[in-house]
Structures are given as structure tokens and as C-alpha cells.
């Protein structure tokens, strides 16, 4: 089975053994999740700068030793081809960055392995190792092949991120199978050009999940790159505290441009969060939580959780407040699950120690102390009159403690 | 049910300052790259080469300095523009547009040039410690260790800032330049009258002068910098002004180093054989302290380069060849990245430790290597910046092309002449 580095620039002969030109590129069809079949050979004719495209049906052999056609060149009607509709292996894949889905990492294509699969000549693998590099450089004679480990990625587990529309949409589809955190890491190692293209191709919801995981500096760059128009729908899908952190990094006027595009109700919430310092309970808390009156029953609460679930990142507790929003206590999912449907939420409440709640000015140290002491996954933030302001969840604290992860 | 809480409205002074601070940061983020890159240009190789230029040839080479100020401004501006438009580093761009062979070629050129420069930095460290009678067998391994330690464990950014601030030391050359009462008329005259001696020493020093001012790594550095900062083409005008200013400031400093050494060492026929000789130029300003002042300046300039260059080299290689990079990758995944950094620290340190090598010669000759390799990198830059497919409407204008090609051809001619002249000298 040949590598594309063996094939490119080799002489192409027709059935009369006459050399008609040199192999310039190989065009394959994009087939997500499958080996891409070779569709055309792009051939640079002798004494003619233009490329001709020969359908693969006319190819006799495609090997390291020989590239030949099964008919007389004069008898073959070259097909007009729009290169944009195909993947050109040399021009679009070789030397470009791709995403290795199985390893969730970004690599550069050093060489491509081509071979028969189910009777079709197809691209089978991507060489991303030193071996491929040496082969491309014509240094295989060094004999390092035996020492070096090969590094071949299955074509089906690779995703192109080239700037072409169709491919990006395909990319977006297969990439969403990855965990948002892995996808964020990939975004960080792609060139900015490809990375921002990728974010644009994802739908707003997925893009929001990924963007939340990306490091703040890149977040800022990407959002600025997308501009208010496109970023608005992504921002609207991000949790409020993340949006606030992001907006805080932008100059005031710019932040306003972005906020203007987000729906009214959400903006109101956002503006409130702007008031607090970053590393305090107020700055860390989220406003995306569920609060209920003590008069509601367990059944009603569960129905509401089901309805609101898609728009909330996580639900570990629900919070019980009176009509003027004074915090009465919290109920865990576990209690909801094991209680009868007609029990009132108010009856599930236990007295909570006031020292297990936070005030907005509390710093990270204080937050950690409270959470550790009372074994909390989430801690509520209350104002002086015990009104519920927001909730700090453990993942926001963890992010502060391990910013590099 | 209620989805969210209610909040009292309060506006604090803190809030106001935070906004203001963000603005100030934004300002600095734009002001950064040109000045930093230009400042880092005056590293160990820089100070030494400029000193040698002035000490051995007086003000005769000032016309070269004037011309390459324009070259520096234009080449750095091109790097900024490519970075702003493509939002990609030079290594990645070369790989994607010229294929793997040209990439290997460009990277080899960069590697050799950078290893040369890092060697110069360690030589600078050795030379500055030698002023305090501390031998290089102590200072160099210690410096190499601390560079690795800070890169691996510490904060690269903070360290970079500290040494950047230290490098404000160059101001002493400007003050000194006035105290020595140099012949400004002669200097101005030399600046506009090209004089050239067709001898190997003159050409060697001249190429070093070019190579220390415009460097291959500087070209990679400035482009990566604007990409990493997330700047885009909106910032072009501000960036351009900043880069031009940076080029101007660097060469003002270079001008005064040359003037200072010309008015002191050249006048008395002192040739620079070691750091102590070069330090003599600061005597008019600092008196007996000149030695220590010079040692301090040389040391911090060298350390700055010794920090930036191994990392810059590793990033460029990893980008071009697709290896994982960055200090938050694990040893297993980032093997190549860390190996390149280690090699780029250890190998140069070992070269400096060879007994009896002349530290001054290392510092000057490494700049020659940079100068000789520079045209190759610049040709890639020219091919990229004139490619409409890559740059769109931001391709080079005629003036930019003329100055860049003149620089490239000028260096090539000088190099060829140097080779011919040194052979002619031998026979």
C-alpha cells in the first residue's frame, strides 16, 4: 500500500505506455465516518499548465512503482471538476492541522496512506509521526524506520478542520461527540484561524459549552473575532457567571456591544453580577438555579425541574425562598427522589446554620472553608437581609484552584 | 417559582478602577510587541557587536545602521501584518504553503541561527561574570540551570518582565553618548556617506551589525506575539506605529553604543578582546563603576535572550511539525517540546564551556550566522506577504517590497563578498 508521498509527482502513463503528465493531486470524496474513496486524479499534463481530472474508473494501477490509466488518454473525456467540492489530498490535507478524534488532540499531517478497502481505493490512514516526516523529506534511506515507532491515525478517526464550508460542518458534527473539555483543548491547540472557524460551525449550544471550558484569554479572542452579531447566540447559551467573567475582560464599550445583543431578561441578571469582584463569592456565583416557594409540593418541583433542565448546567439542590426572596433552606435531589409527591417542600426543610451560607464579599479562602466544613457541593450567597443572591458551585471554585486543567 | 435572585444596585470606586485598569492593559497589550522585540534585539550579541563596530571602525558603519533601521521597521511591520491577517505563526504558515521540505529548510536555518544567538547569550553571561572574576565553569552551568528551572517551574512572564525592565540599562549609553562629547558632525556625515572596506574584518563586522539588528527569530517572534495577543487587523494602525517606534528606539540605542565606543576605544586604538575592554566605553559616565555597570547590563540582556530564545525555538518547531507544545503539556505528550528547549539550553552552554574560546568572538560571529541566514527567512516572508490568496488586500505595497528586497539582496551581496574577500586574503 503506497503513501501519497510516493505517488505525487510520479509520471502518469496511459494504456499505450506514453507518459501523459505528472500526478499533481488526488481528489477524494468526503464520507464522514468512513474511508474516503479516491474519485479523481489531478494530472498536470506535459507542456500544459492546466490540470486535467481523470475519474478513478480510468485508473489501471496506483502504486509506488507505477501510476497508469486503462485507456488511451485521447479516448478519455476529462471531467470538469470544481475542486471546492472535493477533498484534495495534497492541497487540503497534507501539511495541515487535523483533529485526531481518538486521542482528542491536534496533529499535523505528514503523509497519507492509501489502499484498497472494500474494493475501493481509499485513504486509510494519516501518518503524523517522524517516519512520515522523514519519508516526505526523502530521508528514508537513513534506515531509521526500524528504530522509530510508526504513528498512524485511522482516517475514520480524523477530522479535517480546513476552512471549507462543507467540511467544517461535517467537522462540527463529529467533534461534538467529544467532551466539551477535550474539544476546548483542541481549540486551544489549533491555529486561531481554524479554531475560530470551528466555533462558527458548531451550533450555539455546543459552542457555548466548549467556550466555557476554553481558557479565558482565548475566550476573549474568539468572542472578539466572532463579533457581537455571531457571539450573541453563543453567549446567551453560556451560564451567566461565565458570560460576566468574559465581559469583564473586554473594554467597557465593547462589552456593551455584546450585551446589547443578548435578550433583555438575561442582561438584567448579567448587570447585577458585574458589581462583584472576580474572586469573591459574588463574582463566582451563578444565577442559573431553581428556587421554589415552601408551599409547592415535591411533585410540582420535579415537574418544574424536568421543564427547566435543558437550560440549566447542573441541578444538585433546589432552593426554597419565601415571597420576598428570603432564603429558607435547600433540598437535595436525593430528598426529592425519596419523598412522596404530595409532601410540601417546606416540610422537607431543616434548620440550616447561618455560617454555612456565604455573603457576596467572601473570598475564595472563606468559600472553601465553608464548603469543606459543611461538605457542600454548592453554597448559597445571601445579602444582609438573608435574601438569596446566587449560588457558588464547586466547579467554579475548582477552576480557580487548578486553572491549567 | 422564581428563576433568579434579586440584587441591590451598588456602584463602587473599585468598579470604576477595574474598568480603567482593563483599558490600561489593553493599551499595553497593543504597545507591547514592537518595543519588546526591538528591546530584546539588543541582547548580548547586540551590545557586543555594536561595541565592536564602534571600537574597531569608529563611526564608519553608521550609514549601515541608518539603512537597516528602515529595514528593521519594514520587516517587523510585515511580520505584524502577516500575524494580524492570518492569525497564525510563521512556522505553521511556511508548512502549510511551502510543504515539508521548505519547512525543514527554514527550520534548520532558524535552529542554527537561534543556537548561535543562545550561545552568544551564555557567552554574555560568562563575560559579565568574568568582570567579577567568576569563572565561566561556574557561571554558565548555573545560568543554564536557572533558565531551565524558571521556564519549567516558575513564571516565564514575570521573569521576562523583570529582565525587560533591567534592559532599560541602555539609557546609560545614551547619557554616556553625550558626556563623551563625540563628534556629532562627523557621525552625521558618516551616516549618509556609505564607506566600505573590502576586507574580511570589515565585512564580517558589517554582516554581524545587520544580523544582530534584524534577526530570523525576531521575525518569528513578532508574528507569534500578535497572534497570541489575539490582535486583529483593526489594530493594524496602532501596531504599525508601535513597530516603527520600536525600530527607531532600538537603533537610537545602537547609535549611542557605537558613538560611545568610537569616541573612547576607537580614538585610543583599543581593540575589544574581552568584556572589560568593552566596559571601558562607559568610563566617562560611570568612572570606576563602569565595569560593574556594563556587567550588570550585559548580564540582564543576556538572561532575557537566554529565556526567550529556547522557548521561541521550541514553539516554532512544534507549530511547524505539529508536535504538542506549551508548558502545561505533560512530559509524555510534550516530549519533543521539552527536548528542544533542553537541547537549546545545553548545547550552547557546552560550546561556551570549551576552554579558551573567545567569548567576544562567539558573540560577534553568532550575529554573522544570523545575518547570513536572515535572507532565507525573509524570502519566505516576502513570498507569503505578496500572496493574494493568503493576504488578500493586505499584500505588500511597492515601497515595502523595494526596501525588503534591497535588504535581502544587500545581505546576500555582502555575504558573497565576504566569502570572496576572505579567500582573497588567504591567497
From TrEMBL, chain A:
* Pfam families named among the record's database cross-references: CBS, MgtE_N
Q: CBS domain: from which residue to which, for each copy?
A: 351-405
Where would one find coiled-coil regions in this protein?
Answer: none
Which superkingdom heads the taxonomic lineage of this protein's source?
Bacteria
List GO molecular-function terms, semicolon-separated.
Answer: magnesium ion transmembrane transporter activity
InterPro entries in UniProt: CBS_dom, CBS_dom_sf, Mg_transptr_MgtE_intracell_dom, MgtE_N_sf, MgtE_transporter
A cellular-component GO term for this protein: membrane
Q: Which UniProt keywords apply?
A: CBS domain
Q: Which SUPFAM superfamilies match?
A: CBS-domain pair (SSF54631), MgtE N-terminal domain-like (SSF158791)
Q: What name does the UniProt record give this protein?
A: CBS domain-containing protein
Amino acid at each position: 500500500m503506497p503513501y501519497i508521498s510516493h505517488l505525487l509527482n510520479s509520471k502518469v502513463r496511459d494504456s499505450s505506455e506514453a507518459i501523459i503528465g505528472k500526478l499533481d493531486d488526488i481528489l477524494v470524496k468526503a464520507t464522514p465516518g468512513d474511508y474516503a474513496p479516491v474519485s479523481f486524479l489531478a494530472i498536470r499534463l506535459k507542456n500544459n499548465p492546466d490540470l486535467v481530472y481523470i475519474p478513478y474508473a480510468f485508473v489501471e494501477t496506483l502504486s509506488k512503482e507505477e501510476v497508469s490509466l486503462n485507456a488511451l488518454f485521447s479516448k478519455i473525456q476529462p471531467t470538469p471538476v470544481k475542486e471546492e467540492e472535493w477533498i484534495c489530498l495534497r492541497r487540503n490535507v497534507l501539511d495541515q492541522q487535523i483533529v485526531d478524534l481518538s486521542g482528542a488532540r491536534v496533529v499535523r499531517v505528514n503523509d497519507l496512506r492509501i489502499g484498497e478497502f472494500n474494493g475501493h481505493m481509499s485513504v486509510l490512514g494519516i501518518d503524523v509521526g517522524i517516519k512520515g516526516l522523514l519519508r516526505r523529506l526523502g530521508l528514508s534511506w537513513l534506515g531509521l524506520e526500524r528504530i522509530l515507532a510508526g504513528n498512524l491515525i485511522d482516517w475514520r478517526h480524523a477530522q479535517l478542520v480546513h476552512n471549507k464550508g462543507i467540511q467544517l460542518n461535517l467537522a462540527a458534527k463529529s467533534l461534538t461527540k467529544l467532551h466539551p473539555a477535550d474539544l476546548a483543548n483542541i481549540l486551544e491547540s489549533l491555529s486561531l484561524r481554524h479554531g475560530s472557524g470551528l466555533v462558527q460551525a458548531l451550533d450555539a449550544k455546543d459552542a457555548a459549552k466548549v467556550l466555557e471550558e476554553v481558557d479565558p484569554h482565548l475566550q476573549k479572542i474568539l468572542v472578539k473575532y466572532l463579533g457581537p452579531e455571531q457571539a450573541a447566540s453563543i453567549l446567551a447559551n453560556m451560564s451567566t457567571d461565565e458570560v460576566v467573567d468574559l465581559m469583564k475582560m473586554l473594554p467597557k464599550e465593547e462589552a456593551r456591544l455584546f450585551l446589547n445583543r443578548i435578550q433583555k431578561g438575561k442582561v438584567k441578571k448579567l448587570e447585577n453580577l458585574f458589581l462583584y469582584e472576580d474572586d469573591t463569592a459574588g463574582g463566582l456565583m451563578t444565577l442559573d438555579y431553581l428556587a421554589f416557594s415552601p408551599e409547592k409540593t415535591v411533585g410540582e418541583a420535579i415537574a418544574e425541574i424536568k421543564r427547566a433542565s435543558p437550560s440549566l448546567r447542573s441541578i444538585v439542590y433546589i432552593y426554597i425562598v419565601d415571597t420576598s426572596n428570603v432564603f429558607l433552606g435547600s433540598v437535595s435531589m436525593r430528598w426529592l427522589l425519596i419523598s412522596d409527591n404530595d409532601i410540601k417542600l417546606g416540610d422537607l426543610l431543616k434548620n440550616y446554620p447561618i455560617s454555612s451560607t456565604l455573603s457576596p464579599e467572601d473570598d475564595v479562602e472563606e468559600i472553601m472553608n465553608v464548603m469543606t466544613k459543611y461538605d457542600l457541593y454548592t453554597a448559597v450567597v445571601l445579602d444582609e437581609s438573608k435574601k438569596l443572591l446566587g449560588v457558588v458551585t464547586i466547579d467554579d471554585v475548582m477552576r480557580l484552584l487548578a486553572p491549567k486543567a | 417559582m422564581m428563576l433568579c435572585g434579586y440584587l441591590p444596585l451598588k456602584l463602587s470606586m473599585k468598579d470604576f478602577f477595574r474598568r480603567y485598569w482593563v483599558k490600561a492593559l489593553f493599551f499595553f497589550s497593543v504597545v507591547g510587541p514592537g518595543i519588546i522585540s526591538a528591546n530584546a534585539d539588543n541582547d548580548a550579541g547586540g551590545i557586543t557587536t555594536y561595541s565592536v563596530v564602534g571600537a574597531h571602525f569608529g563611526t564608519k558603519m553608521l550609514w549601515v545602521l541608518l539603512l537597516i533601521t528602515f529595514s528593521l521597521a519594514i520587516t517587523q511591520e510585515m511580520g505584524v501584518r502577516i500575524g494580524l491577517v492570518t492569525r497564525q505563526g510563521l512556522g505553521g504558515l511556511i508548512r502549510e504553503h511551502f510543504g515539508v521540505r521548505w519547512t525543514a529548510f527554514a527550520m534548520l536555518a532558524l535552529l542554527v541561527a537561534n543556537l548561535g544567538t543562545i550561545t552568544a547569550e551564555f557567552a554574555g553571561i560568562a563575560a559579565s561574570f568574568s568582570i567579577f572574576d567568576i569563572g565561566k565553569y561556574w557561571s554558565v552551568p548555573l545560568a543554564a540551570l536557572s533558565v531551565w528551572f524558571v521556564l519549567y517551574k516558575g513564571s516565564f512572564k514575570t521573569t521576562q518582565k523583570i529582565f525587560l525592565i533591567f534592559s532599560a540599562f541602555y539609557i546609560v549609553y545614551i547619557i554616556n553618548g553625550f558626556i563623551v562629547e563625540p563628534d556629532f558632525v562627523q557621525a552625521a556625515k558618516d551616516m549618509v556617506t556609505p564607506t566600505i572596506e573590502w576586507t574580511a574584518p570589515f565585512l564580517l563586522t558589517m554582516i554581524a551589525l545587520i544580523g544582530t539588528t534584524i534577526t530570523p527569530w525576531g521575525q518569528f517572534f513578532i508574528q507569534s506575539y500578535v497572534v497570541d495577543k489575539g490582535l486583529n487587523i483593526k489594530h493594524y494602525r496602532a501596531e504599525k506605529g508601535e513597530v516603527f517606534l520600536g525600530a527607531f528606539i532600538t537603533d537610537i540605542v545602537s547609535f549611542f553604543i557605537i558613538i560611545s565606543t568610537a569616541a573612547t576605544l576607537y580614538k585610543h586604538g583599543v581593540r575589544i578582546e574581552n568584556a572589560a575592554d568593552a566596559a571601558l566605553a562607559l568610563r566617562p559616565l560611570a568612572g570606576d563603576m563602569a565595569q560593574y555597570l556594563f556587567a550588570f547590563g550585559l548580564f540582564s540582556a543576556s538572561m532575557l535572550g537566554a529565556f526567550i530564545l529556547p522557548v521561541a525555538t521550541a514553539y516554532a518547531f512544534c507549530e511547524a511539525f505539529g508536535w504538542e507544545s506549551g508548558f502545561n503539556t505533560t512530559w509524555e505528550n510534550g516530549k519533543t517540546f521539552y527536548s528542544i528547549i533542553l537541547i537549546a539550553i545545553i548545547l550552547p552552554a557546552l560550546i561556551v564551556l570549551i576552554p579558551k574560546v573567545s567569548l567576544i568572538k562567539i558573540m560577534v560571529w553568532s550575529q554573522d550566522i544570523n545575518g547570513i541566514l536572515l535572507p532565507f527567512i525573509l524570502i519566505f516572508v516576502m513570498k507569503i506577504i505578496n500572496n493574494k490568496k493568503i493576504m488578500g488586500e493586505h499584500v505588500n505595497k511597492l515601497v515595502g517590497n523595494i526596501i525588503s528586497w534591497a535588504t535581502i539582496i544587500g545581505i546576500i551581496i555582502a555575504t558573497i563578498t565576504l566569502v570572496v574577500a576572505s579567500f582573497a586574503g588567504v591567497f
